[in-house]
Every structure is written in structure tokens, then in C-alpha cells.
């Protein structure tokens, strides 16, 4: 039946291609439900096409290219699904096609480069530096970006904006430092050119987008009467806060609800601590207790209390009426409780050593500086420490060091794990003891709470 349906393309959903003026790195589900969606909904969308490159594997680009870049966004709320075809991605390219990437970053009509490359990809890579120095093609996103920016300088194509859309605090500056440092190792003049001509924009991005399942693909065929191999399912909520200059222009993302601010840190912290921090607590505590999804874990009072305790601590360091913390927290409970979105805890649990540095450590430090224990933040770390004890294969940029820590026991083990997040805190025996004691606190629930299964979001 499915085989008889036409494949989604610009023939069956006419949507003229806009010229490429945005280059994206990290063509995944989140990019499609967020930056591509916002670009589609900008008032001047017709002028802004995205060329989107994959990170490590070609698959997503191949699937999307076969349907002219079009894909369906399934907006999934408690009350049902709505379907929308998004056409802002006009070119979907394998990231290994470095020549095309360099050509586009070097083109004067390109005004914006956006990144969703994961938190871990901002760490420096010695391999990339030696590849660049020896005139070979780099393999990491930032290495490729340095090559692209060198081409832009050489072509005298002018300034542009690089917009990090990863869940890192101060992500614009983190991106700037990583790119400029890498460039300086290759060519000091290039580093200076980047410093003077590239605007690194900081952003806080938000839209819960679980991995697409075969059931989602089947649902599109049934409901939309075309075949789409690259749909994304997302919650109705979306948020994008940006801070920085766009010297070569940008789409009118504000028409789609994006907000431009002078000082982004409070918004970033609100999102990273309250949303992502809670996610990390649920990911480790929830799985230890036998749950599989965010909604299931949230229905367990042990997990919910751990989240609320952490939120109370974090909220003390999120001052200012305009942040509307009580409303934000209430909205998060609703969003997490959307049981039709099957957001798997295993997906959130990866890359802990990078994520917890952003989600737990700032709150733990702020609480201790204020003379309190920081127990809520410590509990997030304790849940991770306990989880990696029984799940040693968890994906992590520091997986070797995690495995080494796991060979130790008791306080020594906790010290070694904490040192991966914050070396100084790991030297404080009181914090180590607190985390060690808390790590016993997540026994498997006798009857794991199971959220009502939905026919479409299983
Ligand atoms: C999650 C985020 O996987 C994770 O670490 O916390 O991907 C989260 O779902 C998004 O930031 C929501 O905007």
C-alpha cells in the first residue's frame, strides 16, 4: 500500500526553492524541527534557503535529497497531531562533501552558518589541526568550518554570522574560541580575519524532538497520502532566543516567534538548568528506576521530587521577573508530561560528562557559594554516577576515563567521576561524600509507572 504512494517532492507539494543563504552543519531531527521550521515561518522565507550538511554519516542527506529537501513536521500535542511540509532546506548534502561546504561558506551570498553539532564537538581536535596544517580535509565540523572561512577570506566575500544552536552556555563564545584557536594553529592571519569578520551569535534553542520511529513514517503515509522517509515529530512548543550581530543579514525569524536580546545568559541558564537539567535527572534516575521515557519517569514521585528539588535550587540563581520562573516550571511539567511524545531517556543519557558540566555544576557551585549543600544538583551527579556503574557502555566523549573511574570503588570512584565534570569540586571531600550517599537513592521501582501508551508515539 505504502509502495503505491508517491514520494514527497516539490512536484506533489509545490514549494519553490529559495536561494541558499544559510549553511547548516548537523542535519538531524532537531535542526529540521527548529531552525528549518523557523526559517520556513519567517516573513521573508522566499529569500532564505538552507544548504544543510550532515555531521558524521551521509544517510540523512541522501534520504532528504531524494525528496527535494522536503519533510513533514508532525506537531504532536496531547490532543492530536498536525502535519506540515517544510521546504526551507533546499540542498541536503553529505558532510564529507567538504568541497561543496567550502564553496558555499566562501560564497558572498551566504550570510549565516548555523550549527547543531552536539556539545561534545566544541572540544579541540589535534587531528583536525594536523590535517589542516598538512593541507588535508578536516573531518570535524569545526575543522571544516575553518577551511570554509579561509575560502571566504580568500574570496573577499565579507562578514557573516556563525550561530551555535547547541545546548552550551555562552555557545557563541565557545564556538568563537574553538574556531579561532583552531585557525590560529594553521594561520595567524586567518585567526585575526575570523576575529574581525565573523560574528559569533549566542542562542538558546528549545523544542523537544524525539527520534523518528518507523511508526511515525507509517503514520505520514496513512494520513498525508505520500511517502516521507524523513519526517520529524516535535512538541508544539518552540523557542529561540538569540544575541549577536548578523552583518550580512538574516531571515526575519522574529515573525516565527524568535526573540532577540542583548543579554542571553539568563535565558540560556533558565533553559539549560530547568529543562536540560531536569532531563538529565530523569535520564539517569528514571532509567535506574526502570522507566524508558520522560513522561514515564515524571510520573514517578521519586524522580519528580528530585526534579523539583533541583529546580528550587536552580531558581534561586535565576533572578528577574521577566524570566517568569513559576510559569516556566509549570509549562515544563506539562511539556514533559506529554505522553504522546515518546522521548526516550536513553537518548538524553548520552554524553553525560559534557552535559552535566553545563547542567549540574553551575548550580552546585552557586549553592555552595551561598553556604548551602547543593543537594539537588549533587543528586543529578549521583544519579549519573550510579547509572554508569551499571551501564558502563554509555556513549560519552570521555568514555575511557569513565571506564577507568568505574574500576575504583566508593569515594575514590565518585572522586574520579566528579573530576571529569569539575576537578576542583572533586577535591572537596564533603561534596564527594554527599554524592556518594545520594547515589544509593534510586532503587528500581517495584512497578514502574507506565504512561498511557499511544498508538502513534510508541
Ligand atoms: C535533551 C535535549 O538530549 C538531551 O540532552 O536534554 O536534547 C532537549 O530535549 C532539547 O534541548 C529540548 O529543546
Give the arrangement of secondary structure elements.
Elements: E1 20-25, H1 29-33, H2 35-40, E2 49-53, H3 59-65, E3 71-77, E4 80-86, E5 89-93, H4 98-105, E6 112-115, H5 126-133, H6 141-155, E7 160-164, H7 171-186, H8 188-197, E8 198-206, H9 214-224, E9 232-234, E10 239-243, E11 259-260, H10 265-288, H11 294-298, H12 301-315, H13 325-336, H14 345-349, H15 352-359, H16 361-369, H17 375-390, H18 399-406, H19 410-421, H20 429-438
Parallel strand pairs: 1-2, 1-6, 2-5, 3-9, 6-7, 7-8, 10-11
Antiparallel strand pairs: 3-4, 8-10
Helix pairs in contact: 4-6, 5-7, 6-7, 7-8, 10-12, 10-15, 10-17, 12-17, 17-20, 18-19, 19-20
Bound molecules: D-mannonic acid.
Residues 167, 206-208, 276, 279, 347-348, 355 line the site of D-mannonic acid (CS2).
Structure write-up:
Strand 3 and strand 4 form a beta hairpin. The chain is built from 20 helices and 11 strands. The protein has an 8-stranded mixed beta sheet. A 3-stranded mixed beta sheet has the order 4-3-9. It starts with 19 loop residues before the first strand and ends in a 20-residue tail after the last helix. The chain has 458 residues and is of the alpha/beta class. It has helices at residues 29-33, 35-40, 59-65, 98-105, 126-133, 141-155, 171-186, 188-197, 214-224, 265-288, 294-298, 301-315, 325-336, 345-349, 352-359, 361-369, 375-390, 399-406, 410-421, 429-438; strands at residues 20-25, 49-53, 71-77, 80-86, 89-93, 112-115, 160-164, 198-206, 232-234, 239-243, 259-260. It folds into 2 domains: 2-262, Rossmann fold; 266-454, N-(1-d-carboxylethyl)-l-norvaline Dehydrogenase, domain 2 (Orthogonal Bundle). The protein binds D-mannonic acid. D-mannonic acid binds at residues 167, 206-208, 276, 279, 347-348, 355.
Amino acid at each position: 500500500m505504502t509502495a503505491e504512494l508517491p514520494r514527497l517532492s516539490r512536484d506533489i507539494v509545490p514549494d519553490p526553492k529559495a536561494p541558499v543563504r544559510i549553511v547548516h552543519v548537523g542535519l538531524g531531527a532537531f535542526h529540521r524541527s527548529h531552525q528549518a521550521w523557523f526559517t520556513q515561518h519567517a516573513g521573508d522565507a522566499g529569500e532564505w534557503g538552507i544548504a544543510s550538511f550532515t555531521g558524521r554519516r551521509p544517510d540523512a542527506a541522501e534520504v532528504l535529497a531524494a525528496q527535494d529537501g522536503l519533510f513533514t513536521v508532525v506537531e504532536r500535542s496531547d490532543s492530536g497531531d498536525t502535519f506540515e511540509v517544510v521546504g526551507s532546506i533546499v540542498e541536503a548534502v553529505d558532510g564529507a562533501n567538504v568541497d561543496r561546504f567550502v564553496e558555499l561558506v566562501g560564497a558572498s551570498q551566504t550570510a549565516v552558518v548555523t550549527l547543531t553539532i552536539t556539545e561534545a564537538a566544541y572540544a579541540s581536535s589535534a587531528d583536525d589541526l594536523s590535517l589542516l596544517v598538512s593541507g588535508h580535509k578536516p573531518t570535524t565540523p569545526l575543522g571544516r568550518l575553518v577551511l570554509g572561512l579561509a575560502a571566504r577570506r580568500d574570496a573577499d566575500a565579507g562578514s557573516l554570522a556563525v550561530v551555535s544552536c547547541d545546548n552550551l552556555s555562552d555557545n557563541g563564545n565557545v564556538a568563537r574560541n574553538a574556531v579561532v584557536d583552531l585557525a590560529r594553529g594553521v594561520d595567524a592571519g586567518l585567526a585575526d580575519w575570523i576575529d574581525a569578520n565573523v560574528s559569533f551569535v549566542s542562542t538558546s534553542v528549545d523544542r523537544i524532538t524525539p527520534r523518528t520511529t518507523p511508526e511515525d513514517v507509517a503514520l505520514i503515509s496513512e494520513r498525508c497520502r505520500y511517502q516521507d522517509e524523513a519526517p520529524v515529530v516535535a512538541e508544539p512548543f518552540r523557542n529561540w532566543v538569540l544575541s549577536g550581530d548578523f552583518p550580512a543579514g538574516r531571515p526575519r525569524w522574529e515573525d516565527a516567534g524568535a526573540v532577540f536580546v542583548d543579554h542571553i545568559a539568563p535565558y540560556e541558564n533558565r533553559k539549560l538548568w530547568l529543562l536540560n537539567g531536569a532531563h538529565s535527572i530523569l535520564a539517569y534516575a528514571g532509567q535506574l528506576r526502570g522507566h524508558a521515557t520522560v513522561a514515564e519517569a515524571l510520573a514517578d514521585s521519586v524522580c519528580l521530587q528530585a526534579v523539583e528539588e533541583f529546580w528550587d535550587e536552580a531558581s534561586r540563581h535565576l533572578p528577574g521577573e521577566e524570566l517568569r520562573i513559576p510559569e516556566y516550571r509549570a509549562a515544563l511539567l506539562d511539556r514533559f508530561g506529554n505522553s504522546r511524545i515518546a522521548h526516550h531517556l536513553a537518548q538524553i543519557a548520552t554524553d553525560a560528562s559534557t552535559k552535566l558540566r553545563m547542567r549540574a555544576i553551575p548550580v552546585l557551585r552557586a549553592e555552595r557559594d551561598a553556604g548551602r549543600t547543593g543537594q539537588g544538583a549533587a543528586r543529578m551527579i549521583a544519579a549519573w554516577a550510579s547509572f554508569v556503574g551499571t551501564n558502563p557502555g554509555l556513549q560519552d566523549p570521555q568514555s575511557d576515563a569513565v571506564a577507568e573511574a568505574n574500576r575504583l570503588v566508593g569515594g575514590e570512584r565518585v572522586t574520579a567521576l566528579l573530576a571529569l565534570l569539575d576537578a576542583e569540586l572533586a577535591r572537596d571531600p564533603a561534596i564527594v561524600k554527599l554524592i556518594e550517599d545520594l547515589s544509593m537513592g534510586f532503587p528500581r521501582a517495584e512497578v514502574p509507572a507506565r504512561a498511557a501508551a499511544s498508538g502513534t508515539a510508541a
